[in-house]
Amino acid sequence: MNSFVLSIVIPTYSRAEKLNLLLFSLSNSFSVWPNGIEVVILDNASTDNTAQIVSNFLDIIPIKYVRRPNNIGMDGNIASCFDATSGKYLWILGDDEILYRNSLKYIFEICSNNDFGILHLENGGFKSEDEHIIGDLSIPEKPEIISLNSELLFRNANIFLTFISANITNKLAVIKKFPDFNSKSDINTFLPQMAWTYSALKAVDNHFFIRTPMFGALIGNTGGYKFIEVFGVNLINLTNKYFPLDTLKSTQIMSNAVITRLIPGELIAQFGKIGSKSNFTNEDINTAIYNSFGEKIYFKIFLKPILSNSLFLRKFFFILVRVFNKLNKKMGFIFL
After folding, report:
1. 3-state secondary structure of 121
2. Residue 200 pLDDT level (bands cut at 50, 70, 90)
3. Ramachandran assignment for 223, one of left (phi > 0), alpha (psi -120 to 50 degrees), beta (any other)
4. What does the alpha-carbon distance between residue 180 and residue 61 come to, in Å, rounded to a whole number?
5. Which of 74, 164, 188, 330 has an alpha carbon within 20 to 30 A of 231's alpha carbon?
6. β 167-170/89-92 pair status
7. Which pTM does this prediction carry?
8. pLDDT, tens digit (0-9, with 9 covering 90-100), for 286-326
9. How far apart are CA 220 and CA 124, in angstroms?
């Protein structure tokens, strides 16, 4: 019988300083590390001092460190996380994130005493220059948590279901429901985790959403792929493939979420006016957005003005979509 309740997997590649920060936050989670949590680090053939950083924590955290002889790519390393653990619940953490104080204790208690498909976590952000203060971040005594069925979690989490670290997944439920499940079936989409995220939504109809930030993610540290190709094409195709509430309904919800919650902020950041610019691979973003979303009503209302050459229109409609998102969130995203 499986002895681990929660498996934490950290895929990493040559980001030793950031990994050090994450491991430090993990090491402060318990005075004595519980037997029910395993930690696995998948090192994708790092060229820096990652191995040394990991060794510094071995006396505190019982880490299983796997260093690959060759780099198998970001998608390959992430996809392999699913098969690298033996716990009931799987939590993949980015090497550029940190846990808030007491968050792991709270999460472990939920995993130990409940059966669910996905535990979706709210998160905060931090900038690299703020790293010296993140040790002061902690969760409140009573975080806000709600229970949702699969359709409601999909609607409420929407685009943030793609954020790997925000989802703790019932791996055993996925395997039981889908014995032939292949975690590597969607390599090269830059979203291989959606295979088990969506499968967990189908395998179990009970989920939790912690609406209080549990961890922090480094702002502006995303990139290496074509932004609209991944979220405008691949994500919609994977939604169709794995979670068709019905084809129109699921893709409409996800498309509208991408249009309103994801693209506007990135566009403004790319224009250099607001936000933190990420390092996405070059693409003709205007053409890509029009091709993916040009016929959508929300595109015409919110995105088209932000794509204009008018600075006034960009700012005005960016503010408008932010107000829309806040109201929509309060109402459970019924307008997606």
Report:
1. strand
2. very high
3. left
4. 33
5. 330
6. antiparallel
7. 0.91
8. 888 999 999 999 999 999 999 988 889 999 999 999 999 99
9. 13
